[in-house]
Specification:
The complex is a heterodimer. The longest helix of chain A has 6 residues. By secondary structure, chain A is mostly beta strands. The N terminus of chain A is likely disordered. Chain A has a 4-stranded antiparallel sheet with strand order 1-2-3-4, with no helix packed on it. In chain A, strands 5-6-7-8 form a 4-stranded antiparallel sheet, with no helix packed on it. Chain A has a 4-stranded antiparallel sheet with strand order 9-10-11-12, with no helix packed on it. In chain A, 8% of the residues lie in helices and 41% in strands. In chain A, strand 14 and strand 15 form a beta hairpin. Chain B is of the alpha/beta class. Chain B is built from 20 helices and 20 strands. In chain B, strands 6, 7, 9, 11, 12, 13 and 14 form a 7-stranded mixed sheet that branches. Chain B has a 3-stranded mixed sheet with strand order 4-15-5. A two-stranded antiparallel sheet of chain B has the order 1-20. In chain B, a hairpin with a 4-residue loop joins strand 17 and strand 18. The longest helix of chain B has 24 residues. The radius of gyration of chain B is 29 Å and the shape is elongated. Chain B starts with 17 loop residues before the first strand and ends in a 12-residue tail after the last strand. In chain B, 47% of the residues are buried. About 1% of the residues of chain B have low confidence. The chains are: A mainly beta, B alpha/beta. At the A-B interface, loops of A face helix 7 and helix 11 of B.
Chain lengths: 316, 551
């Protein structure tokens, strides 16, 4: 499928985008859409179906994706489709469909978020949030999945964030349809965190690259804007109370955060940018945004791939 | 006029007998000392056992290292005057054990120290009531000082160390640490007898209740001896279904709701109804089984149905309210991702009711749990909260003999209770050192009061706080005096490790006491002893009842 085809598919919603490290050099990126998973090898100008080898008869709605942190060397790619996690070890050339619990039932769970351990090459740990079966955990690179939901009161998972030092602190956060939960034992059991907004849908989460030291976590809600915690989720402050009133669909922190203080959020129909840790905001882009993925330019700046509601992808 | 003969007033027969001071204090003291001396050897990481003579049911003596149970087993002393003191402390220790599950040996030695010192002060002319008031004031100082020392329990390693401080069994402590790291304060833990010699564990997904399938014919998975439905509906009732016609509105509503798997909960089914349910199982048709309403008593059934409603959203049909199945509509059914049942239990995974309702119910039950004093009520509330959090585990305790298995099960239960308290209220430095660390606060208060009763009370408490530390050392074969000076010299943040015989940094030692237990032990010991000191007269009954269960 090329770019022209994409234009013909109206409302082919982009659920998620991913640009691996070294994107500016390799120009390879992925888009999870309502009609399937797509790969671009020219920086997002043209797209081909990443499921080509499956010879599918009908579109395979792909709701989330994750790349191995060492994608350049091991090319592990995971994508969530209803009832299954699709797993590829060769950048989408071939696939294995791994069934999730209840995959064969009338209403299989839809994976809504994937979170992958920074030490994935060694520990093979990743998590899948689902719309009705809570958080599923795999410790063998996605080959098998099991549910560990002790203490998780809401099984409708909307977002996941994993600590960059997960192999040490085993910390994971899950935003649900009614609040935010934290696991400090590798996703085996959960405790609710007290967001000032109460039991609201938590659509997006972002964790500081230096989380081990600064304990910074950001949570974007459906109705009450953006919150930041500097103590691993124990206490929270509202960010951008004037500028940010509604839905926060995605949060991106610069790889140099907190030093640069650079934060990007998909807020309603805009991308907002802050360079001071969220105190002040400016509009970076106005469009019907569905998904964002950040990458570093050769000059070291933070740039974005922006997926739009109509299915197109822009670079800014 | 003939005078009516005057009725002679019968002389009040003082058959029970009266006892006055100083005899009261002396005899009570003897009884208290007897109980404390029986419990004292069990304090610390090198406890000794107390053997209780065999009963008609047990062939061998019962071996105990738990102060609460030891006190409970001492039902009556021969001397009725001494018995008053013994039963007084027995009741205090049992209430403590019921509330926090541990800390009775520490409480016993503190109680004894306060009481014995208090008697000396009263004998020298001190006022018992004023002393009691000051002891209770000093107790508040101790509790506040302990509060400042509390550390939260944050890892499974810490949980294992806390468990070890109760059970002194490394394997059990590690497994309990793993379990409670997952199931948390409220999680359900079933401790059962294992088949082999080792300890095994299993985690159970979702929530489950006792009361399984109504008939073996309803088992669909023969090898696993259970039935499991995915995306199942459940009808919540405590009704007795006698006639097959009663099922008609249920089946009609289920078909309207396009239900494929249905679990009918009822307290009783007639053979006729059971037969119909067992026969009507065809592939591609609606699958149905019936499970028993959980609980034997009406209030247990009501509570189970309430929690199942919170989890699944199913309407409840109560016999007591005159409900019938005629009222069932397509909206009456609860929904869950999975419902399973075997012949003993039924469980729900991923109930589909509003999670906000679940939280509200958890909050309501948690408030009740932390206010409840009675162990049975607390356990019931805790289990209900655990079910709503969907965390459960089973621990199989193995052993060489039935007696060993039972002892290990009791130990595991006690350790589990302690871990729940530790998760809720945190821990303090163990080995009696946290109590020693309260002494400066008492001395400061003592220095600021000119009142001799107050000064005496604070002096008594300062000395009493050393009692657990001294006892732990004595039980382990160390001389307490020299070690106490060394600990004082080392300063705050150090602890004596009985296992190695050295003074080590508290933070890295992993020697903990549960804060809630330590506080309750200090509270019940000081308050109990202060009250006992004010007892001035004893009246005996003619035939005092033997109290098997302490109150």
């Amino acid at each position: 499928m090329n770019d022209n085809n994409l234009q013909q598919l109206s409302q082919d919603f982009v659920y998620a985008l991913a640009a691996p490290a070294g994107f500016t050099h390799s120009q390879t990126c992925f888009a999870a859409r309502q009609s399937g998973l797509y790969i671009s090898e020219d920086g997002g100008s043209t797209w081909q179906s990443a499921y080509a080898s499956l010879n599918l008869d009908s579109p395979l709605s792909t709701t989330c994706l994750a790349l191995s942190p060492n994608y350049a060397t091991e090319a592990d790619l995971l994508a969530g489709v209803p009832g299954f996690i699709m797993r590829s070890e060769d950048a989408g050339k071939s696939w294995l469909a791994i069934p999730l619990p209840y995959a064969s039932s009338r209403s299989p769970a839809v994976p809504t978020a994937l979170a992958i351990s920074a030490d994935y090459s060694k520990d093979g740990i990743l998590f899948a949030g689902t719309n009705e079966d809570g958080v599923l955990r795999s410790a063998d690179r996605g080959r098998t999945w099991s549910a560990w939901n002790f203490g998780l009161v809401d099984f409708n998972i909307l977002s996941l964030a994993i600590s960059p030092s997960f192999s040490k602190d085993e910390t994971l956060y899950a935003g649900t349809g009614s609040g935010l939960f934290c696991s400090r034992n590798g996703g085996k059991s959960w405790k609710e965190l007290n967001l000032p907004a109460g039991y609201v849908p938590v659509l997006s989460l972002a964790i500081s690259p230096d989380f081990e030291r600064d304990g910074i976590l950001l949570a974007g809600t459906e109705t009450d804007g953006l919150f930041i915690s500097s103590d691993r989720g124990q206490s929270w402050q509202r960010l951008g109370e004037k500028e940010i009133q509604g839905v926060i669909n995605q949060i991106i922190l610069s790889p140099d955060f907190p030093a640069t203080g650079e934060v990007l959020v998909a807020h309603e129909n805009t991308v907002l940018r802050s360079s001071d840790g969220g105190n002040t905001w400016s509009v970076l882009l106005e469009a019907e945004i569905a998904a964002l993925a950040a990458y570093r330019t050769e000059a070291g700046d933070l740039s974005l791939l922006v997926g739009l509601v109509d299915g197109s992808v822009k670079r800014i | 006029m003939k005078r009516r003969p005057q009725k002679s007033i019968p002389e009040f027969k003082q058959t029970p007998g009266l006892l006055f001071q100083p005899e009261v204090h002396l005899r009570m003291q003897k009884g208290i000392n007897l109980i404390v001396d029986a419990i004292r050897p069990t304090l610390g990481p090198r406890p000794r056992q107390v053997a209780v003579e065999k009963t008609p049911r047990s062939k061998s003596p019962e071996l105990l290292d738990n102060g609460g149970l030891i006190a409970r087993r001492i039902i009556d002393l021969k001397d009725p005057d001494e018995n008053i003191g013994a039963m007084f402390i027995r009741g205090a220790l049992w209430r403590l054990y019921e509330k926090v599950g541990d800390g009775t040996a520490s409480a016993a030695v503190i109680f004894q120290s306060v009481y014995n010192q208090g008697l000396r002060y009263i004998a020298a002319g001190g006022n018992a009531m004023l002393l009691r008031r000051s002891l209770e004031e000093g107790m508040k100082v101790i509790l506040a000082a302990l509060d400042e020392m509390v550390t939260p329990v944050t890892s499974k390693e810490m949980l294992a160390r806390v468990a070890l401080s109760v059970c002194y069994d490394e394997e059990l402590a590690k497994i309990l640490g793993d379990i409670f790291d997952l199931i948390g304060e409220y999680g359900i833990l079933q401790i059962q007898s294992g088949r082999g010699r080792v300890i095994e564990r299993e985690f159970i997904e979702g929530s489950y209740w006792s009361g399984g399938l109504h008939s073996k014919d309803m088992i669909r998975d023969i090898p696993k001896q259970k039935t499991q439905f995915e995306n199942a509906a459940i009808l919540l009732t405590d009704l007795e279904i006698e006639e097959t016609e009663q099922l008609v509105p249920v089946l009609r509503a289920a078909m309207q709701a396009q239900i494929q798997s249905l679990v009918i909960m009822a307290s009783k089914l007639s053979d006729k109804v059971l037969g119909v349910l067992a026969v009507n199982q065809r592939p591609n048709k609606m699958q149905m089984v019936a499970v028993k309403t959980p609980g034997l008593r009406l209030d247990d059934q009501m509570m189970a149905l309430e929690d199942l409603y919170v989890l699944t959203g199913g309407e409840r049909f109560f016999k007591a309210a005159g409900d019938t199945l005629e009222r069932v509509t397509p909206e009456s059914f609860g929904q869950a991702r999975k419902i399973w049942a075997d012949m003993n239990y039924m469980g729900v995974v991923g109930g589909k009711n509003d999670p906000l309702l679940r939280r509200e119910q958890i909050d309501r039950l948690s408030r009740g749990y932390h206010l409840a004093e009675e162990a049975e009520i607390r356990t019931k509330l805790r289990d209900r909260i655990g079910r709503l959090y969907s965390g459960a585990a089973v621990l199989w305790m193995g052993g060489m003999t039935e007696s060993e298995i039972n002892t290990r099960k009791e130990l595991a239960q006690r350790s589990a209770d302690t871990l729940r308290s530790a998760i809720y209220k945190g821990v303090v430095t163990g080995g009696g050192v946290s109590l020693l660390a309260c002494q400066p606060a008492l001395r400061e208060k003592m220095g600021s009061s000119p009142d001799p009763d107050v000064q005496a009370a604070y002096r008594i408490l300062t000395a009493a706080l050393e009692a657990p530390f001294r006892t732990i050392l004595a039980n382990a074969g160390y001389t307490s005096g020299a070690t106490l000076s060394k600990i004082e010299q080392a300063g705050r943040g150090y602890v004596f490790d009985v296992q190695t015989g050295g003074i080590v940094e508290a933070s890295g030692s992993g020697i903990y006491d549960v804060a809630a237990v330590q506080k309750e032990a200090a509270y019940s010991a000081i308050q109990g002893a202060a009250l006992a000191l004010t007892i001035d007269t004893v009246i005996h009954r003619k035939k005092p009842p033997v109290v098997v269960e302490p109150d």
